[in-house]
Specification:
alpha+beta, Translation Initiation Factor IF3, 4-stranded mixed β-sheet, 57% helix, rod-shaped
């Protein structure tokens, strides 16, 4: 059951929605219920319309759809109605897939290789400098 504040927030969101469910002269059929289930799972908030040729009033259609899908009624205005059902699919925390940018990966690999090469070169020159100092100190002593 929705509280009045939740219902008011959903009504304000519903003003921008397009009408996706249409109840015709056939009334509430299995296909219409399946379509409502699909839409509620995908969007949570669904706006519908009852055509003039239908034998149902918008309030009756809304109640029948809510009973069949387990949704909550939000509002009926004229020939249109809005229903809501919380979708677990939309509220699941998405598994964070790390997007891989191949350009960035290549650049990072090149930078790491260049850094290793610099360190290797610097270590070589350090060792050479230490060796040269030892040799020069050894020559001075002799």
């Amino acid at each position: 059951m929705l509280s009045s504040k939740e219902r008011a927030a959903l009504r304000s969101q519903a003003t921008e929605l397009q009408t996706l469910l249409i109840v015709g002269k056939g009334g509430i059929t299995e296909n219409l219920i399946q379509e409502a289930e699909t839409l509620l799972t995908a969007k949570e908030l669904v706006k519908g319309k009852v055509l003039e040729t239908s034998l149902l009033s918008p309030q009756e259609a809304l109640e029948a759809l809510c009973e069949a899908t387990g949704a909550d009624p939000v509002q009926t205005v004229g020939t249109k109605f809005v229903l809501y059902r919380r979708s677990e699919k939309l509220h699941q925390k998405p598994q964070q897939k790390k997007k891989v940018n191949p350009v960035r990966v290549g650049r990072q690999a090149r930078r790491a290789a260049a850094r290793e090469e610099r360190e290797r070169r610097n270590e070589y020159f350090r060792q050479t400098a230490i060796q040269n100092r030892k040799e020069s100190n050894h020559r001075k002593e002799n």
